[in-house]
Amino acid sequence: MLDYKLLEALSAIVDQGGFERGAQQLNLTQSAVSQRIKLLEARLGQPVVVRTPRLLPTPLGQRLLNHAQQVRLLEHDLLDRIPALGEGTQRLRLAINADSLATWWAPTLGDFCHRRGVLLDLVVDDQEVALRRMRDGEVAGCICATARPVQGARSRALGAMRYRVMASPGFSERHFAEGVSQQALERAPAILYGPEDRLHQRYLDLHGFKDPFPHHLCPSSEGVLHMTLAGIGYAMIPECQGSDGLSSGDLVDLDPQRPLDVPLYWHFWRHGGELLDALTAHLLSAGDTWLRAPEATTTAPA
C-alpha cells in the first residue's frame, strides 16, 4: 500500500518547485520532507524526482502525482457524501492560457466557485503548452488547443477564441499605411506574449512570411492589449478583448479578412471525481457565451 504522507511530500516539492518551498507548504522542516522523498524512493527502488538542473518528476514520479491528485479529488467527494468524516475545502489546480483568464474564464467560473465552495490554484500557460502540465501530473485539468488527451484523461471541445490583428490608428498609419505587406511585416514591431507564442507566426504564415521580425515580449494578456493601445506595436488580440477598442476607434483591425480561430479544449482526469465532472458540465454549458461554437470555427493552421 502507498503511504500518502510520502506522496503528499512529492506533490508539495513538485508544485512549489523545490524542497524548501515544499516544506513550507506542509509546515515541515526541509530535512523531514527530504527524508520522506528518500523513503519513497527506497520503497520503490528508483527515483521519483530529478534534482538537477531543476527539480522535475521522473516518469514514475509523474504517475504517482497523477494518482495522488485523483485520490484527493475522490476523497473530497467522500467528504461531501459522508459529513461525519469531517470537512474539507477542495482546491483545484488547473492550467489555463492567459487570454482565457483575461476574458471569459472568471465570469464563467464565478457562480460555480461560489456554489461549490472550491478554491482554484491556476497555472498560466500558453494554450498549446498547458497539456504538458497534465502529462507531468501537475494539474487536474487544463485549457489547451490540442484535442487529443493524455493517457488517463478526457477532452471536450469548448469552442474557439477568435483573434484579430490589431494596432492603434497611429501605429497603423506609420507602419501599415499601404496595408499588410512583406515589407511592413519585416519592419513593424510586433508584441508577443512570450517566446513560445506560436499564434503570431501562424498569422505570418498566412502571408508566406518566414523572415525574422522585430518584436516585444510581454507575458501578460492585459499588458499586450495596453501596449497595443499605446502604439508600441501590433498584436494578435482576442476579438472579445479588443472589441471595445475597435468600437471606440482606439484600435483598428489591420487585416479584417484574416481572423484566426484558436480551438480550445477542456482536458480533465477520467477518474477525477464528481467535482471535476461538475466543472466539465458547467464549462460546456456556459462557455458558449464567450466562445465561438466548435462547428462555426475556422481552425488556425498547425
Structural class computed from helices and strand pairing: alpha/beta
Q: Can you give the mean pLDDT?
A: 87
* Separate helix tally: 13
**Oligomeric state:** single chain
Tally of DSSP β-strands: 11
| Relative strand content | 15-25%
Q: How would you describe the overall organization of this protein?
A:
This protein is α/β, with parallel strands linked by helices and 302 residues long. 44% of the residues lie in helices and 19% in strands. The strands form three sheets. Strands 3, 4, 5, 6, 9, 10 and 11 form a seven-stranded mixed β-sheet that branches. It has a two-stranded antiparallel sheet with strand order 1-2. The chain is elongated, with a radius of gyration of 22 Å. Keywords: DNA-binding, Transcription, Transcription regulation. Belongs to the LysR transcriptional regulatory family. This is ArgP/LysG family DNA-binding transcriptional regulator. It holds the Pfam family HTH_1.
Give a short synopsis of this structure.
This is ArgP/LysG family DNA-binding transcriptional regulator. The chain has 13 helices and 11 strands. The chain is of the alpha/beta class.
Give keywords.
19% strand, 7-stranded mixed beta sheet, single chain, two-stranded antiparallel sheet
